Amino acid sequence: MAEQPKYEIEEDPSLLLVDDDEPFLRRLAKAMEKRGFAVETADSVAGGKAIATARPPAYAVVDLRLEDGNGLDIVEVLREKRPEARIVVLTGYGAIATAVAAVKIGATDYLSKPADATDVTNALLATGDDLPPPPENPMSADRVRWEHIQRVYELCDRNVSETARRLNMHRRTLQRILAKRSPR
């Protein structure tokens, strides 16, 4: 079982959760409320921006890829409205480039899915040079590779030849990888 966070919530416990995966959003909201946060949720960039503008929270967890756009747009609005907000970008498509972009725009931390409420809480409440403990079940190297290939494939509009060229791999090798199920 994961250890409970050793950090304290500031006097303002407002938390914005933005994710288009409805079951995940509900579970995370319930878990974060149990930890003492006052949770507000949104399932789109538009909804997240509206809440960030009207009631900028002290904390936010924003999914990077949403159906109507990029979660980094919400991070920018939050930084503008409440510069001291602690923001964690959460995504199923972990990549170094997106992590760097998220932190440059103003995210406090970056977590890859699957992340549980303890990982999220530790990332939100860690201060200064204090790093949260590593996740108990990080993605395997094979899974990270697969996620990267999937991301590039999506960015190339699902064009196998273009994806293979950009990844410097043979097209047939890429086709075999894409035909397989994701590694654990």
UniProtKB/TrEMBL annotation:
The keyword Transmembrane does not apply. One of its GO terms (molecular function) is DNA binding. Keywords: Activator, DNA-binding, Phosphoprotein, Transcription, Transcription regulation, Two-component regulatory system. NCBIfam families: ActR_PrrA_rreg. Member of the two-component regulatory system RegB/RegA. Involved in transactivating anaerobic expression of the photosynthetic apparatus. It is a transcriptional regulator that is responsible for activating expression of the puf, puh, and puc operons in response to a decrease in oxygen tension. Residues 14-128 form the Response regulatory domain. GO terms for biological process: phosphorelay signal transduction system. CDD domains: REC_RegA-like. This is Photosynthetic apparatus regulatory protein RegA. PANTHER family: PROTEIN PILG, STRESS RESPONSE REGULATOR PROTEIN 1. It comes from Ascidiaceihabitans donghaensis. The modification 4-aspartylphosphate is found at residue 63.
